[in-house]
């Protein structure tokens, strides 16, 4: 016959081991990799004046320019920024951004970001010495299935740093 106390004791040990393994592997899945992308001041955007003439909801700004990773590897960036809200009295616009960071030859290893931020109505980009955060919504190639978030900083010298926190 079985010693039920011994079996119960062994089951408790097995449960404790399984819980420990679960907690450890969960922590590993939360660990983040970080990619830092930098570039100089952005060129003027292609500006599409949709909606009412002048600054208005529906206006679109487009960019396509090179950048580099922290280790010096080149990449291409594409940005689409659409005005979705205005606060004329405060001189602020709300803009949704969709951007793609294209690595290697630009067609297979990509990271896609999206989010909304407040911008000064008179400028195409964030003020210098400010930052905003957006979601990493996916990727392709070696970045397929990723998520996370990105912090974009417009540095005081006019250059930019994008820190991608990848899960």
What would you say about this model in short?
The protein is α+β, with helices and mostly antiparallel strands. It contains one helix and nine strands; from the N terminus they run αβββββββββ.
Description:
The protein is an alpha+beta fold and 167 residues long. It folds into two domains: 1-31; 32-166, AOC barrel-like (Beta Barrel). It contains one helix and nine strands. It has an eight-stranded antiparallel beta barrel.
Describe the largest sheet: 8 strands, antiparallel, barrel
Number of helices: 1
Percent of residues in β-strands: over 45%
Based on the coordinates given, report the CATH architecture of the largest domain: Beta Barrel
* Model regions low in confidence, pLDDT < 50 over at least 5 residues: 26-31
Number of strand elements? 9
Can you give the mean pLDDT?
88
H/E element order: HEEEEEEEEE
Helix content: 10-25%
Q: How would the global form be characterised?
A: elongated
How many separate domains make up the residues? 2
Please state the structural category. alpha+beta
Radius of gyration: 23 Å
- As for the CATH topology of the largest domain, it is AOC barrel-like
């Amino acid at each position: 016959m079985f010693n039920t106390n011994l079996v119960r004791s062994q089951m408790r040990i097995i449960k404790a081991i399984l819980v420990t393994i679960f907690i450890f592997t969960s922590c590993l899945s939360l660990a983040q990799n970080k990619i830092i992308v930098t570039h100089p001041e952005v060129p003027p955007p292609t500006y599409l004046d949709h909606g009412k003439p002048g600054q208005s909801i529906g206006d679109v700004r487009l960019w396509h320019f090179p950048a580099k990773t922290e280790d010096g590897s080149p990449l291409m960036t594409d940005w689409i920024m659409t005005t979705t809200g205005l606060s004329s009295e405060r001189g602020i616009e709300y803009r949704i951004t969709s951007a793609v960071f294209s690595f290697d030859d630009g067609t297979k290893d990509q990271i896609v970001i999206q989010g909304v931020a407040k911008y000064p109505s008179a400028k195409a980009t964030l003020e210098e010495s400010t930052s905003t955060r957006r979601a990493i919504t996916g990727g392709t190639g070696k970045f397929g299935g990723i998520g996370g978030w990105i912090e974009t900083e417009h540095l005081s010298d006019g250059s930019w740093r994008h820190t991608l926190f990848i899960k």
